[in-house]
Amino acid sequence: MGHVEIHDDLTFESPTLIEGLLGVGLVGKIAADHVIDAVDATYFGTVRCPGLPRVAVYESGSYETYPPVRLYGSEEHGLVVLRSDVPVSPSEVADFASCVTRWVADEGGMAMYVSGLPAEVEPDGERSLRGVATGDGERLLADHDIDPPATDGVWSGPTGALLARASEVELDAVGLVVETDPEFPDPEAACAYINRAVNPIAGLSVDDADLRAHVEEIRAEKEQLAHQMNESGDDSSRAEPVGMYQ
């Protein structure tokens, strides 16, 4: 059974969890990595789940290796970021979602999930952002002028499972759907998510200037990861509109 392993005791009071799993456009991944750097968050926990690959992650300039799905936190900001460098196996998403949701609920926290909505977008064009909610999350969306989806849809993949589990246990959570390039990493969509959802809802003031200044580098760095996801089968999180009669 999946569990969260804590190895650096940070103290949180009703933290906000920001999810950074792999998904279409890598919106959550790009945003989570940027937020971790911006608030100087500390690596304090590991998600252990049978469906996660047994791999070692390493970073440039460091001898250390890390597990593939990790928790970073900032006591000052009451923030926890779920950072992932691998996809979650479709056969194990239920256990993974239960594990993460149980930890957030035990901490009295609120969760923010994000998924890209494949769309035809210009590289520097505006991205629409809409939201859904569980528990008391609807109030947060309304307070910050985030509209509900304009069409029916289905949210699949690991973040879809997380949102479904949040609904089952009545955890306060919001799910943000952001228009994104379906083929390539989309830093512009990540900026829209940070500015219009993460900052106001989590009470942060993360600046996207550095992210925008390195858009091409980020696209190049993350593009190989996107190719690996496509080659291994499309099990990533995504939101998709559905026709009324489908």
TrEMBL record:
Gene3D superfamilies: PAC-like subunit
Stored InterPro entries: Proteasome_assmbl_chaperone_2, PSMG2_sf
Pfam families (UniProt xref): PAC2
Entry GO CC: proteasome complex
Protein name, UniProt field: Proteasome assembly chaperone family protein
Origin species: Halorussus caseinilyticus
Keywords for this protein: Proteasome
Top-level division of the source organism's lineage: Archaea
PANTHER family xref list: 3-ISOPROPYLMALATE DEHYDRATASE, 3-ISOPROPYLMALATE DEHYDRATASE-RELATED
Region (Disordered): 223-246
